[in-house]
Amino acid sequence: MPTRTISRDLKDRIPVLFFEKGYAVNQICTVLGVKKTLVYKTLDLYTTFGTSYNPHARRGGRPRKLTDVDVKFVEALLEQSHTIYLDEIQEKLLTQRGVSVTMATVFNTLRRLHFTRKCVSIRALERNDLLRSAFMNKIADLVPDPNMLMFVDESAKDDRTSGRRKGWSLKGMRCIQRRAFVRGKRYSILPVITLDGIIAHDIMEGSVTTERFLSFLEEHVVNLSQRGFNRGSDNEDGEDAGLYDSNGLSEVDRELARLRRKLEVKYQNDHNTGYTYIDPETAESYELTPIMMKEWARAMYDGVATVERPVSLGKVTFHPAKRQVALHPSRIAAGVNLPHAQGAGATDIGHLANMITTLIG
């Protein structure tokens, strides 16, 4: 009869029962239902390696057909092209490495390297990185706390929306369902969602137009008419409009965006869209928030920091409540962004109102 395979978690209990619980070998055999030879061998491995198995043991069987160099070649192919097909990897192994393997071998190699097939996260090829960095700087300046962010998006339904594209039926038979071919009436919903969930919404018949959207903001988010906001006002900082380029960026804005882009390239995480800085002295890792990225770029602009080394993370520059304004230095003297400032902007609701009026103006 073939030998019975003992799971690793069962072997892990042997050192625990022997060293911590004080069980004898005979008692361990009775409790776990194993033989003495296994108990003695496991205890010997635990004494030598600190584990219930030999970490240096190699798996038996035929040698792998792909060498370490071939595996590195496959990893390089995946790094170069994330959407490459298995047959393309197979072909490149044959033409460039001279190795003929099956599709199953390629698939098992990817699984052994912990690669999984998933949906592609698309980033626009036409994206302007400079404008994106400038926008992130502006958002970090307007929103010191993520709880102040509100997101509004239109969603709609009609008589055909609830129809499902796939269903179940017996093999060889069609899956038939009677449903409307005419769309019917269209209803739109405008929800406002924050970190606390949906805080306001409006349901209307038909599509959402610009007038309906602005009316929704005035009635359900912030009453712009009562605040007497003038959408045709001059630049909020009183700056000369001639100093801005065709993209609406001043010279300072462009330079800050360029510096921020350098930080984004250097500290971009591989597993998500965030940014992380690791202190080389303390080995502490810091998640770089939009405010921290903006203030780091400001510190680089002022000549007190570099791409490799920021100012001390405990100083004022990286404190959201005591930050300096990066995009519009003229606001510093006015103090409109300080937490103790008076007026509507001193509260979260007032700050949100200022944000909305700025964005839709």
Automatic annotation (TrEMBL):
It comes from the Eukaryota. Pfam families: DDE_3. Residues 149-222 form the Tc1-like transposase DDE domain. GO terms for molecular function: nucleic acid binding. Gene3D superfamilies: Ribonuclease H-like superfamily/Ribonuclease H. Signal peptide: none annotated. InterPro entries: Homeodomain-like_sf, RNaseH_sf, Tc1-like_DDE_dom. This is Tc1-like transposase DDE domain-containing protein. The lineage of its organism: Eukaryota, Fungi, Dikarya, Basidiomycota, Agaricomycotina.
